[in-house]
Design a protein that fits this description.
This protein has 250 residues and is an alpha/beta fold. Helix content is 31%, strand content 17%. Helix 3 links the parallel strand 3 and strand 4.
Length: 250
């Protein structure tokens, strides 16, 4: 398999800086790699978000197990100025999202362009580390469906489990570097969205597409964890998206 996307000097610098840290703190186990498309082209990886460490652990998996160069979405303000973080983000080809743009579709212009170049875009549909007490995926924002339908790129769920044991948040903060942990990843089959592609991007279409992605992602996480997710997803905004067992959503 050929790694997609040009790395460039800043991307290689970030790898050299972080790889020793990765080797010390965790080992990886990845499954489901047979679902990775073999025909090239842009690809969206939709991942659950369980730890502030996720961008590093997930990059480790995508680079060395999937043999792809991940491009992450980040708020546009992080790319501004001449500081170290902004310089590395720009140099490594990461993707700014202009959240204050009036047109929601225009906010994803850079991500759509990245996919058109055949690159791999990683998105956390929840938009933040999950606040679910048991770390199951929350109700997601609709950006993942919007990006998929605007670009035509396939969306594959990439479930992960274990990073929270090293660095946790939301009520259970703390950095626990030892003993060395195993972080497991599971890639799922492309999510079926073709029937939505010809429809107008209404709120209903975007929500339906997003729910399909989150259902697929949750199913892969269930396999990793060997447990069943709650019937309805947690949402701190109080939105209920499925019938459930009375699980608290606010």
């Amino acid at each position: 398999m050929r790694r997609r996307g040009r790395l460039g000097p800043w991307y290689r610098f970030a790898i050299a800086l972080l790889k020793p840290f990765c080797l010390v703190l965790w080992r990886r186990e990845a499954s489901g790699l047979q679902h990775l498309p073999k025909d090239g082209g842009g690809l969206i990886l939709a991942a659950n978000h369980i730890s502030p460490l996720d961008p590093i652990t997930l990059s480790d998996c995508v680079l060395y197990d999937l043999d792809l160069a991940p491009r992450f979405l980040a708020k546009s303000s992080l790319f501004e100025g001449r500081g170290f973080v902004a310089t590395v983000l720009r140099g490594a080809g990461q993707i700014p999202v202009h959240r204050q743009t009036a047109d929601a579709a225009r906010a994803l212009d850079a991500a759509v362009a990245s996919l058109a170049r055949g690159e791999t875009v990683v998105i956390y549909p929840e938009g933040t580390v999950t606040r679910d007490p048991d770390k199951w995926p929350m109700v997601a924002r609709t950006g993942v469906a919007r990006l998929a339908l605007l670009s035509g790129a396939p969306v594959l769920p990439l479930a992960q489990w274990g990073a929270h044991e090293i660095l946790d948040s939301y009520g259970r903060p703390g950095f626990h570097p030892f003993p060395r942990r195993t972080i497991r990843f599971r890639l799922g089959a492309p999510v079926g969205l073709s029937d939505l592609a010809e429809q107008p991007l209404t709120a209903e279409v975007l929500r339906e597409g997003t729910e399909r992605v989150m259902d697929a992602l949750t199913a892969e996480l269930e396999v990793l964890r060997g447990a069943k997710a709650p019937a309805r997803r947690y949402d701190s905004r109080g939105i209920v998206t499925a019938e459930g067992d009375g699980r608290r959503t606010a």
